[in-house]
């Protein structure tokens, strides 16, 4: 099997290319951690133990490797010197959620939305697919969407239901929202990587696309036996997504599943009893991780056609909605916090 350029980037010896303390290079080489794949695929504690170095040195080591293999990130200082503002965002169509996320979902890096089945991940992805097509003045990008399905058929009926309500809310959108969503079904891991490596760049070069949704990243890899070749494919997938985000200034939203764990020491501080699948291999490639889940709370409300908020009602027809929660697990510019929302026939809505 011919090794791709992207795959080689993860498997070759990169120690001599890193600008780090020579002591780290010597220890890493001695312990056999010489490639990006082996280094980023290990936990912080594992590297600390195997290399015999301090936590400070290991953090510098991981940061150096990540910076070496992923596209260069622009600092706030760089932006201030070039006169450019913050990265563009896609509104979620909900004021509270937009404020919570600092403007919406950024057209920068990879935003992962993870959670249990039925938590609302796909509902948010569908609403983002509509919002991305709004003009910038309305919080969108004025561009289309590439929606890659790996787990099930695209929810066309649900999208049509949301479009009906969405058009009533937004007069400045396109004539047809469905025409702006390009759907592709992927059956397996190799096909997914090939799609992102070859077919997706072709689409982005020919069409004005502002959002790429991968629903889900877990399914093709979870179905395969875990081995180093599959890890390398996952690295290649993440690297290519970062390259596309940086080159075309698009938002990348990857939906992930969760798996149950014993105890509370979950990845990156999530305090529940589940963690995202694909482990550290994928976690080190994600820019922003959002956990979506159901709560034990319910709200009794009636929907108004002119609002994207669910308001408590003492009259009219009462409908009960389960309150969901969007939690920031990690993000370079956001603290760890959460925000409630509900899923209605219109889509996702704020809870007032």
TrEMBL record:
Pfam families: Rad51. The keyword DNA repair applies. GO terms for molecular function: ATP binding; ATP-dependent DNA damage sensor activity; four-way junction DNA binding. Residues 86-258 form the RecA family profile domain. PROSITE patterns: RECA_2 (PS50162). GO terms for cellular component: Rad51C-XRCC3 complex; replication fork. SUPFAM superfamilies: P-loop containing nucleoside triphosphate hydrolases. Keywords: ATP-binding, DNA damage, DNA repair, Nucleotide-binding, Nucleus. Its main location: nucleus. One of its GO terms (biological process) is telomere maintenance via recombination. It is found in: Nucleus. PANTHER family: DNA REPAIR PROTEIN XRCC3. This is RecA family profile 1 domain-containing protein.
